[in-house]
Amino acid sequence: MTDSFDVIVIGAGPGGYVAAIRCAQLGLSTACIDNLINHKGDPALGGTCLNVGCIPSKALLDSSEQYHRLVHRFPAHGIKAKGVSMDVPTMQNRKESIVEGLTSGIAQLFKANKVTSIHGFGRLTMDNTVNVIDESGQIMRTLVGRDIILAPGSTPAHLPKIPFDHEFVLDSTGALNLENVPKRLGIIGAGVIGLELGSVWNRLGSEVTLLEALDDFLPVADHQVAREARRQFTKQGLDIRLGAAVSKLSKSKNGLRVHFLQKDADDSVEVDRVVVAIGRRPATDGVISADSGVGTDSRGFIVVDDECRTNVPNVWAIGDAVRGPMLAHKSSEEGMAVAERIAGGKAHVDFNCVPWVIYTSPEIAWVGRTENELKAAGHDIRTGSFPFAATGRARAMEEPVGFVKMVADAKTDRLLGVHMIGPHVSELINECVLAMEYQASSEDLARTIHAHPSLSEAVHEAALAVDRRAIHKVN
Ligand code: FAD
Ligand code: NAD
């Protein structure tokens, strides 16, 4: 029997589940197929983000940060604690219960919005037909959709010579689920995952070595932010080796030896566990059969236009499986926009205003373009920055680290980018996203009243600094 729906969504990550809910809200009969099985062996909605990505990583970042503060920062407040220890199983159970609460919440939202939730592997064939395949490879159901949204997400990339064994060589999921603090943890790749999960285990006592193939640290971030980040992370004990191209892994007497080439010389480091965090690849294998006609590029990304249309009419693709940053909020915005388009409405996703946050301590956040990118593209710009150390709130919080930097067009003053490192910048950045979305100038932010004392005063002062009139620093 073939079931028909207005819309069939493949994948229930933050792209797929948001698209499905929005489609249903717009009155479209919607099915959402997902194949994720959680660590208990149960189907779980929410995709990478809720199960093995954003949420569990932030739970561990928070637990480890609280512990680290208690030990290292509270004494400055006069708070002294004896016999402090970290109970890793309790930390992990807390993480799991947060994940379970949120993933079961998606199931409830599906029910409430009348989204038909189907567990299985969805494969798009010809004429908008989707086969739902079970674990043994059998077709369980066949569905036909007027529109199809492909949202299969991504999976960790691996190094062919260092395959995951999920015991000693781990992917990000393995690094989230460690039951003990490894004495020595090697991380291949000093990108977002390497820094976030490296911070977690470093705060809990691991000696963490990050091996990064590139010579530059965090080249996607503003160069001054990256420099400050490296300084802070090194101070915290992260051993960051740049220009270290990992070649192989061998067993040593006391653990594992990771071999790498640095400045044309062979080097190695001995560790107990290795996390490979060298990026993610689109999870498109088997999702689109050849007769569906949907095009992918050489790396497996589904090819889409700016509005997430594939080359096949009524087939859309969103999220990590298509071009653009692999971020949950980008996937969700694309999901909502596609639902609106299917329902005949107008939608808008501003790819220039996608915020990035790295949840280390200090946090790093940015939106828009960097000073160097803009200069290389020949833009005439002005910049202004302001340190958190000059704000009363950051000092009162004992967190006088980092700064806000604003980049504006020299002629029109329109904001082109805002870059931050410091306390709670994951929250502060959103004011700047809104400002950029509304095409604000730095003067608009400079003339906006910010509460005193607050961390957001650093945003206000950075805006004033673009015009060399910051008050609480010498311009
Ligand atoms: P996914 O979340 O990957 O979901 C895709 C779903 O589709 C999965 O459930 C998958 O099992 C399912 N699926 C795949 N193929 C099929 C098929 N054929 N049939 C049925 N189901 C299928 N991003 C942020 O913005 N902020 C963060 O703080 C952040 N932290 C992260 C931390 C870690 C450790 C990791 C790994 C990622 C993190 N990300 C973060 C990235 C974020 O998780 C992804 O960008 C986001 O989940 C992508 O959403 P998606 O819906 O495109 O895909
Ligand atoms: P990444 O692209 O951020 O970093 C990977 C790093 O590995 C790069 O610096 C790269 O140069 C390096 N690398 C690649 N091959 C290497 C090799 N052979 N040896 C040594 N280094 C090598 O990727 P990631 O950290 O795996 O994260 C994947 C994606 O997940 C991110 O790009 C991001 O989109 C998403 N994510 C986001 C967040 C967040 O928003 N806070 C958190 C985690 C993950």
Description:
- The protein is an alpha/beta fold.
- It has helices spanning 16-25, 47-52, 54-77, 88-113, 172-176, 192-203, 223-236, 328-342, 371-376, 392-396, 425-437, 442-446, 457-466; strands at 2-10, 30-34, 116-119, 121-124, 129-133, 139-150, 154-156, 169-170, 184-188, 207-211, 239-241, 244-252, 255-262, 265-271, 273-276, 280-282, 315-317, 356-358, 363-368, 381-387, 403-409, 415-422.
- The mean pLDDT is 97.
- The structure holds flavin-adenine dinucleotide (FAD) and nicotinamide-adenine-dinucleotide.
- Flavin-adenine dinucleotide is lined by residues 10-16, 33-36, 47-49, 53-54, 57, 121-122, 151-154, 172, 193, 283, 287, 319-320, 326-329, 331, 359.
Topology at a glance:
Blueprint: E1 2-10, H1 16-25, E2 30-34, H2 47-52, H3 54-77, H4 88-113, E3 116-119, E4 121-124, E5 129-133, E6 139-150, E7 154-156, E8 169-170, H5 172-176, E9 184-188, H6 192-203, E10 207-211, H7 223-236, E11 239-241, E12 244-252, E13 255-262, E14 265-271, E15 273-276, E16 280-282, E17 315-317, H8 328-342, E18 356-358, E19 363-368, H9 371-376, E20 381-387, H10 392-396, E21 403-409, E22 415-422, H11 425-437, H12 442-446, H13 457-466
Parallel strand pairs: 1-2, 1-6, 2-3, 6-17, 8-15, 9-10, 9-15, 10-11
Antiparallel strand pairs: 4-5, 5-6, 7-16, 12-13, 13-14, 18-19, 19-22, 20-21, 21-22
The structure holds flavin-adenine dinucleotide (FAD) and nicotinamide-adenine-dinucleotide.
